[in-house]
Amino acid sequence: MTEARPFSTEELEDRLRAIGAERYHIHHPFHHLLHGGQLNRGQVQAWALNRYYYQACIPAKDASLLARLPTPELRREWRRRLVDHDGDGVHPGGVERWLRLTDGLGLDRDYVTSLRGLLPATRFAVDAYVRFVRERSVLEAVASSLTEMFSPNIISERVSGMLRNYDFVTAETLAYFTPRLSQAPQDVAFALDYVKREARMRAEQEQVLAALRFKCDLLWVQLDALHFAYVAPGLPPPGAFRPEAVP
């Protein structure tokens, strides 16, 4: 049986962008509520607390990939990403800036970092992402980062909507997002060029597309869990964060 014709690089990029247009979590009902000012303070706290686990695991994900990268160029790129999230010891990285966000929302930092209030679905989804990057091919691992193609739009909506609609949110609280407006396009330029160059066979291109669908799905399912636990029907599982029970 003859293998299907490979996509051109332009076709591959178009198909990647079509996945985001259909599946990126900017379309999730929870995000519409978050950006539209329709959540209460406790629900926003729940989002920030659970998202912290995703942010905190990004450096572990990138470090596992760094160990497998075959060239200095690729390793330098992923070392930069580690610094972006972990900081350099002088300038705070994304993880620290996210903790400033949870601080600004009135959450106790020790409680957030303890992960005691985490939704089980958040833990399972994020752990699946770390495992995916650690175990799949380098090509698939890099491709899974391409949700960053779509992040500037969601960041713009999030920041403007939350500042406009919540009196308990300030520009300082949301300072995490400002560097991402320049970091994300840089990340995308490198990763997109890599997958377009390295995915030459149709089977490899299909793996790239599947990796991006997987990443979109795990971002979506985290919001499914938040919506079920804190919006409708509003049933946090045992042990999970409850706004009235924050220490």
TrEMBL record:
Keyword set, alphabetical order: Oxidoreductase, PQQ biosynthesis
Pathway: Cofactor biosynthesis; pyrroloquinoline quinone biosynthesis
Record-listed E.C. numbers: 1.3.3.11
Pfam families for this protein: TENA_THI-4 (PF03070)
InterPro entries linked: Haem_Oase-like_multi-hlx, PqqC, PqqC-like, Thiaminase-2/PQQC
Keyword presence, Transcription regulation: no
Enzyme class label: oxidoreductase
GO MF annotation list: pyrroloquinoline-quinone synthase activity
Reactions listed under catalytic activity: 6-(2-amino-2-carboxyethyl)-7,8-dioxo-1,2,3,4,7,8-hexahydroquinoline-2,4-dicarboxylate + 3 O2 = pyrroloquinoline quinone + 2 H2O2 + 2 H2O + H(+)
Keyword Ribonucleoprotein: no
Domain (Thiaminase-2/PQQC): residue spans on this chain: 14-224
HAMAP family associated with the record: PQQ_syn_PqqC
Protein family: Belongs to the PqqC family.
Role of this protein: Ring cyclization and eight-electron oxidation of 3a-(2-amino-2-carboxyethyl)-4,5-dioxo-4,5,6,7,8,9-hexahydroquinoline-7,9-dicarboxylic-acid to PQQ.
Name of the protein in question: Pyrroloquinoline-quinone synthase
